Amino acid sequence: MYSVFASIPILFIIFFIILLNKPSKIIIPISFLIAFFISFFIWKVQLNDLIAASVLGVIKSFNIIIILFSSVLFLNLIKKTTSLESMNVFFANISMDRRIQFIIINMLLQAFLEGISGFGASGIIAIHLLISIGFNPILAIIMTIFVTPIPTTFGAIGMPFSSMIISLGKDINLDSLFINKILQNISIIHLILGVFLPIIAVFIMIFIFEKKQQNKLQKLLEILPLIIVSHIIFMGGFYFFSKINHELTSVFSAAVALFFVILFVKFKILTPKSIYRFEEDEKNYLLESQVYKNKKIMNIMRAFMPYILITVLLLITRLNLFNTKTLLQKFVIKFDYLFSLLSNLDFHYNLPIGYNSGIFPFSLIIIFVIFYYKISKNNCKLALKETMDKMKASLLILFNIFSLIEIMSVSRYNYIVGGGVASMLDEISKMISLILKDMFIFASPFFGFIGTLMSGSSTMSNILFSSLQYNTAIASGIDPIKIITLQNIGSTIGNLSSISNIIVICAIFGIKNYESKILRITLIPAILYILGSLLIVKLIT
Fold this sequence. Notes:
Number of helices: 25
Number of strands: 2
């Protein structure tokens, strides 16, 4: 009985966002209100405790909101310069082969940018770069979507993974054996399965979008060695750096892979003998080297300078060089007094304002970018307006989804006559464990997958379902390491078929009435990836 009531907010989200494709900015707040009223009327939780839990959710969301705001503002300011165009020319001049351009820009540069900014910004930049050098816009979107999932494991400064740890709240720290084992499992799964994603993307480019090309199979096969080696180098860095500091994993693993791949291309190691070009390339002036020479663009080192500084500052702080991490962690805003006024329960949370990448280093870098590139006052205002416009819907979703989780968690402090009723999350876990029993592990990655589908974010999926999955694993007697591994895999691969992300990207680049076609192209590989991850988890554990 209680399990059914507890499931209503989650089922409401799944039904209206996944099945009916209703906007998250409307459905998530309604789901929060449903959970609030169920906690009050069914669980008999004190009103002041529910208000305190809601406030706690809002405060916790600011940890992500600060990062989101700073990273989006940073990229909007960058767009006001010729920095992207300079990088565009740089990468296009490395090779005229469209397959190699895809590897460098999509597989690796996008992964690097995802580690710095995340929240969809890296994909938008990668698509913009591909279109600028002559890729079909729809093809650029599809190819970018296919290589998005793996870098989103850690996303912007490790946020998806950090949010998973925060949501678990089981006295689990990032140095624990529990987390290290999960990182190992995730790395093995992506190493084995992840290589197929860029291969599928290139297959789509050669076999579907370039119908008049000859020797298509040969053109696919001859690029496979470079794709596979690029993936192995990236995943090697992925595992190595995740053991050191997960916040920098995508940045450094992509940087290392970029270095070696550019080296390989320069010395023609593992590169195809023939150059693959589009049918329309002869008409595309961007591919003419003489045009590149005559274009007045920014010096490449000048273009990359903000990214270099971000990487260096993150390295210094995240590795605690010069004791910077310890110093920054001292700067927090405490809310103990506020919660003591709202509730008698032991609510406690310190909002980090020093050790938050949105404040340091991004705030410093934003100031640096404005003066370094001499961005005009009007362009700064425009970048700020664009950022605020993009943030509006995200703020509402973040506030409500964090508060939703806190409401479902605080329901354990209930006044139900007779007692014996757990929190809403625990009651859902009990129901799932009773229904599925030992079969729950097969449903686990689909929870993460659905979470990303409905929210458009691996971070949100991990916040929404990690604690639920952990509790269900314990209740079912299943190793929680397996379950949290599969939750993470499902949440990352959900980026392959996220309805909201596809709609947003198509809208940004003016692609109309193609969303359902892209979804059909990506959905089957996503499901196969999940099934493959289940098999690998079974074998390695």
